[in-house]
Amino acid sequence: MFTHLKNIDTAFRHMKTFNIILIAANIFTTCFIVYTNGKTVDKAQNTVHILYNGKVLEAIASDRKSNLPVELRDHIKTFHEDFFNLSPDDKAIQANVSKALYLADESAKHQYDNLRESGYYNNLISANISQQVKVDSTRLEGKQFPYTFTCYATEKLIRSSSTVIRKLITQGEVRDIRQQTDNNPHGFLIQHWQVLVNRDTTIQN
User: How many CB atoms lie within 10 A of CB 197?
Assistant: First the structure.
């Protein structure tokens, strides 16, 4: 009789151990399935299919942080092109500068007012001078907003008789305004902007 009870107790222990292992395996399997499904759903949400010329192309969305330096440099480049690319026409100058002022704070407006009061834009118009700028490089510093930048660019003042090449270096900060608009697609704002160097380097006849 005791042997029979001992066998029953041993069988019960084996059954208990087997049930614990089975429950643990079920929990592990359930967690693995939930994790896998989460990864699949996340990948599906970041994948977009585009129809281009009758072909289906797959595009993958990326986190903004991975593209942040590229976006910052493009914002700075766009601002400088709008501010310094000028035609000998008052309406064209106002239109370009107005676009640039959406991308910066009052420090850019202050620079614009100084140039207008000094007669700089009137000289461009009266002498039929076109001004073009090319951003050569932009150095970013810092690990969080506001990022400090230094922009190195080349200016060309083109008139019928000659072309003046200028070296342009500016400095400022970029902060995130957390709102993207048609006039400010990146949602950044340049602040404390100042021109460090703007001098003639060569004159081409």
Answer: 12
Q: What are phi and psi of 100, to 5 degrees?
A: -65, -35
| 64-204 fold | Nuclear Transport Factor 2; Chain: A, (3.10.450)
Q: Locate CATH 3.10.450.230 in the chain.
A: 64-204
What is the pTM for the complete model shown?
A: 0.72
Residues 28-56 as b/e (b if ≥16 CB within 10 A, e otherwise) read eeeeeeeeeeeeeeeeeeeeeeeeeeeee
User: Using CA atoms, how far apart are residues 171 and 167, in angstroms rounded to an integer?
Assistant: 14
80-134 pLDDT, tens digit each: 999 999 999 999 999 999 999 999 999 999 999 999 999 999 999 999 999 999 9
Closest CA to 135 of 99, 169, 173, 185: 169
Which DSSP symbol is given to 183? S
